Amino acid sequence: MFVLFNNGARKMWSFLVEARFWARRTRLGLVVGLVLAALIGLVLAPQVRLSVGYHDFADKRRLLRVPNCLDVLSNIPFLIAGLWGTWWTLSKVSRTSFSSEAERVPYIVFFVGVALTGLGSFWYHLEPGNARLPWDLLPMTFSFMSIVAATVIERIDSTVGTWIYGPLLTFGAFSVLYWYATESQGRGDYRFYLFVQFFSPVLLAMIVWLFPPRYSGTGYLVFAFVLFVLAKAMETLDGEIYRATGCISGHALKHMTAGVACYWVLLMLQRRRLFADLLKERAALRHPTYASDHLRP
Fold first, then answer.
1. I need a surface site. Which of 60, 145, 220, 261 has the fewest CB within 10 A?
2. Over the range 151-181, which residues count as b (16 or more CB within 10 Å of their CB) and which as e?
3. Domain for residue 117, yes or no?
4. Distance CA 57, CA 138 (A)
5. Is 1 part of any domain?
6. CATH code of the domain containing 177
């Protein structure tokens, strides 16, 4: 049984690796096909309403005079990662992590969105309800769409990624405003925001799989993705985790885990290097040049 499993795992890994060597047109076709299929499915899908208990979180304790205290204060990692990331991407020290300004801009917006998510979620969880929910959701769409655009710019095509970035941000904002407008009419439709939240990481994963990076540090992005998935699982198990621990809810853990995921995106940027530069450095180490080499006889 183990041998069969091992052989299957090897074949799967071989398939995943070989996919990057398929014809570029084939890989692009897969990405475009996935996007078109997802958009068609989105349009044909029925309306999605917020669940009845959407605003009914497990941990309602008032601590330190703060209502829903841990759900509120657990947003601090978002604020820290967002402010730190914004400062760093705007500073001169970050220049070596980007080969062009087009690559830098989406990450600036990503971290601004993370910081605003911390503030918006802080405000929302003080008094959860439809009126405050857009302040929580809207900044997240900026971060989701920015990381997708950044990945397209770096792995597929800089011009295409820059061109689609504005429409991506617009669609993200539309998804929240559309829900809010339809909710005020008594027929709230949440499906567009759900599409932004869940399809963005799926598309991101597909691009990372099919298109090789120009920078090192992909492992940091993969780990951030794993943390994001873990955070969503914790959110789903909000009540179960709170009943099991008696001290912290799944939603609070979700905030903290997602905040750490954003920090790992920052770590990726701080530590990555262009593979072309790394190859030049290795070549220089293998064949060092000495001053005497340039002396004429």
1. 60
2. bbbbbbeeeebbebbeebbebbbbbbbbbbe
3. yes
4. 20
5. no
6. 1.20.1070
